[in-house]
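From: lab user (bench 3)
To: helpdesk
Subject: output format question, protein + S-adenosylmethionine

Hello, I'm new to running complex predictions and I'm not sure whether the block I got back is the full result or only part of it. Here's what I submitted:
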Amino acid sequence: MSVNYLRISVTDRCNLQCIYCHPLSGCDFIERKEILRFEEIHRIVRLFVRCGIRKVRLTGGEPLIRKNIVHLVRELANIAGVEELALTTNGVLLEPVAAELKDAGLQRVNISVDSAERESYKHITGFDLLPRVIKGIYKAVAVGLTPVKINTVILRGINESQILALAHMSAYFPLAVRFIEYCPTSKYTKPASDYVPNSEVRKIIERKLGPLSPVLVSDVDGPALYFRFRNSAGTIGFISGRSSIFCQKCNRLRLTSDGKVSPCLYSAHHYDVKKLIRGGASDEVVLDLLKKILHEKSNYTKLNSPAPEFSMQNIGG
Ligand code: SAM
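Helpdesk reply: Thanks, we reran it on our side. This is the complete output you should expect:
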């Protein structure tokens, strides 16, 4: 599988405190001076494109709390060779900037929503902001940041009751509702036992809403498997990172907000690109490191990684 996808966490800060992501003990945020500046992100992407990266996704923390994010989107969209530019957001701040983001060159958004019900949304995220997120979803569809994908993490005893309502959204709206298996990242977030396998989620959906038929989608390079109900406007996706292994198909690298490239979500190994850049390295020297990362990526997989504790907010999911 050729590596053509770079996910960039533009900040480790977030405006929500989701129980499966935000450490219970609070966050040790990265010092602001250590966070990559826009011109540094731009340079890294420009050089990665010379090594074959074609798809870029901005994530976080929450990318929409980063000041002037529209400017970064515009700059990245203008790099020749960036064929796909997308963003993953919790949607809270999306509605007012969706049109601007689209105009700047953003193509698609993924929006994280773990409940369709206001009280349980508040319980999971810490904030009573579901109505704002819903407005963001409508706006994203209206301005054409499509296909809009909804990311949902189901936790046992927390939001299993929401599976049907979330899945049902795809019956009437052109949304891809994707169930992402919970990945325990740290002893300070929820325990590993709270995970609900997607096989169980699928059974719950099919029992009540009818059979799901496989859908062939163009997003062949992602780990999601897509299905739909009969006559539904949208699709249902399953991303089963806990119960299955898709390392052979992995085409992605992750750039953390403090400038480290991670070859595998589960590996503790990283390459410090920012150190090189801030040390005054030439494009050629940085390119050598990027090529080395691509060359060595397959050495780091979920199977051979020691499953360290890590922060989803810094690495970006
Ligand atoms: N703030 C943005 C958002 O909420 O989408 C972007 C960052 S968030 C870390 C990116 C994705 O990671 C979200 O879809 C979220 O549901 C997912 N995520 C976070 N922690 C996770 C975990 N422990 N297991 C599985 N997915 C997780």
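A quick orientation on your result: The chain has a mean pLDDT of 92. Let us know if anything else is unclear.
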